[in-house]
């Protein structure tokens, strides 16, 4: 089933930037150890962290740390909204490469997309550092041809994949754990 995607999987595994559809907008994605490539391509400010996207919650929990009570609260939020368009910003564990959040805030945004294609790719590549497919400050690109034209060095899935799975076009809702509650940083596709 994933045979048409082998080129993208191999590119991601070799540390190249790739693009694939999600349930919101198409993503640019790269190995979490190679994040400088995305910052360079997007002309993105280093004070804007990337999101770690995984195929399942279990792929992501090792990248964050908290008390047992906090972890239970986070798990409950994930159970309600994942897979889906909700990004949880949580205290980062020592496993997180510094390039995921160069500003050094000690947090990490994590998400499991509600998109079968993205989940299948991520289940093979492992979690990837992601952001929307666009130059910083510009609207997200929605079509494979536009992404390929804007980012010629990025491996992009075939155009028909994007046509069949365009995503909502809305960004994910972003919530941060404050230590005793959730704070909405960006209201997006998920209403909280």
Give the tags.
single chain; TC-AMP_synthase_SUA5; 9 strands; DHBP synthase; transferase; 192 residues; 27% helix
Topology:
Elements: H1 6-13, E1 18-20, E2 27-30, H2 36-42, E3 51-53, H3 68-81, E4 86-91, E5 107-111, H4 116-125, E6 128-132, H5 144-150, E7 155-156, H6 159-164, E8 173-177, E9 182-186
Parallel strand pairs: 1-7, 3-5, 4-8
Antiparallel strand pairs: 1-2, 2-6, 3-6, 4-5, 8-9
Summarize the structure in words.
Helices cover 27% and strands 20% of the residues. The chain is globular. The chain has a single domain, classed as DHBP synthase, CATH 3.90.870. A hairpin with a 6-residue loop joins strand 1 and strand 2 (27-30). It is an alpha/beta fold and 192 residues long. Strands 7-1-2-6-3-5-4-8-9 form a 9-stranded mixed beta sheet, sandwiched between helices.
CATH class: Alpha Beta
* End-to-end Cα distance: 36 Å
- Major beta-sheet overview: 9 strands, mixed
- Note the run of SSEs as H and E: HEEHEHEEHEHEHEE
C-alpha-based Rg, rounded? 16 Å
Number of helices: 6
- Overall geometry: globular
Mean pLDDT: 91
Helical percentage: 25-40%
Class from helix and strand fractions: alpha/beta
Summarize, please:
The protein is of the alpha/beta class and 192 residues long. It has 6 helices and 9 strands; from the N terminus they run H-E-E-H-E-H-E-E-H-E-H-E-H-E-E.
């Amino acid at each position: 089933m994933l045979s048409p995607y082998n080129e993208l999987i191999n590119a991601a595994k070799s540390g190249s930037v790739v693009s694939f559809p999600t349930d919101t907008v198409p993503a640019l994605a790269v190995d979490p150890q190679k994040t400088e490539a995305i910052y360079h391509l997007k002309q993105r400010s280093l004070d804007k962290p990337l999101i770690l996207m995984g195929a399942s919650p279990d792929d992501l929990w090792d990248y964050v740390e908290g008390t047992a009570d906090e972890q239970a609260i986070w798990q409950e939020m994930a159970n309600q909204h994942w897979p889906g368009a909700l990004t949880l910003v949580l205290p980062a564990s020592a496993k997180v490469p510094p390039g995921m959040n160069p500003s050094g805030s000690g947090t990490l945004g994590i998400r499991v997309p509600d998109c079968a294609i993205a989940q299948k790719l991520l289940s093979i590549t492992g979690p990837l550092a992601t952001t929307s497919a666009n130059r910083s400050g510009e609207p997200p690109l929605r079509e494979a041809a536009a992404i390929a034209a804007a980012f010629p060095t990025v491996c992009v899935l075939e155009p028909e994949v994007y046509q069949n799975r365009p995503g909502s076009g809305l960004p994910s809702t972003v919530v941060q754990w404050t230590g005793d509650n959730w704070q909405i940083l960006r209201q997006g596709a998920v209403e909280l």
